[in-house]
Amino acid sequence: MDSQYSRVGSHRFSSGIKKGSKEIRPDPPRDAPDSYNPNGGYQGWTNWDTWNTKLILDNDEQLYKQQLAWKKNWEEKKKRGDFDENMARYAVLKYLVPLARKQDPEIDPSKVNTAEIVKSILDEEMG
User: Fold this and answer.
1) Can you give the pTM of this predicted structure?
2) Among 123, 120, 127, 125, which residue's Cα sits nearest to residue 45?
3) Is the pLDDT higher at 43 or at 72?
4) What is the secondary structure of 35-94 as a DSSP string?
5) 73-87 pLDDT, tens per residue?
């Protein structure tokens, strides 16, 4: 197997490994330019900070349970017609993002797309 290496910022990463007719690409470093992914974003999320925040929230049992409780609350508010997405986004930014940052201080709260996280919590089959 051959591999080509290039630099993005201070990171050295493989640009791909040929295995048969498929090319296997590693995840880009978080500071890789958007041109690395022509669609922008990271792993299907707006950016690395949003992706990593949600990854941590989904993989920590207490944070996952917190999301379940919030989902239930938000769904009840939607039924009553008093769900406020801005308040939900504020709650994510004020409470969940700092808890995720305890596990990874590299997360930049100003870059986390809270609307995307709220939508993900509401859309997911959790439980």
Assistant:
1) 0.68
2) 120
3) 72
4) GGSTT-SBTTBSSHHHHHHHHHHHHSHHHHHHHHHHHHHHHHHHHHT---HHHHHHHIII
5) 999 999 999 999 999
DSSP secondary structure code for residue 110 in this structure: G
Residue 110: CB atoms within 10 Å: 7
Q: CA angle, 106 as apex, 100 and 107 as ends, to 5°?
A: 50
Spell out the residues 6+ positions from residue 69 whose beta carbon is closer than 8 angstroms to its own. none
Please report, for residues 8, 16, 36, 38, 63, the alpha-carbon distance to residue 100 in angstroms, rounded to integers and kept in the order given.
26, 31, 26, 28, 8
At 109, is the secondary structure helix, strand, or coil? Answer: helix
CA neighbor of 92 nearest in space, from 68, 115, 123, 69:
115
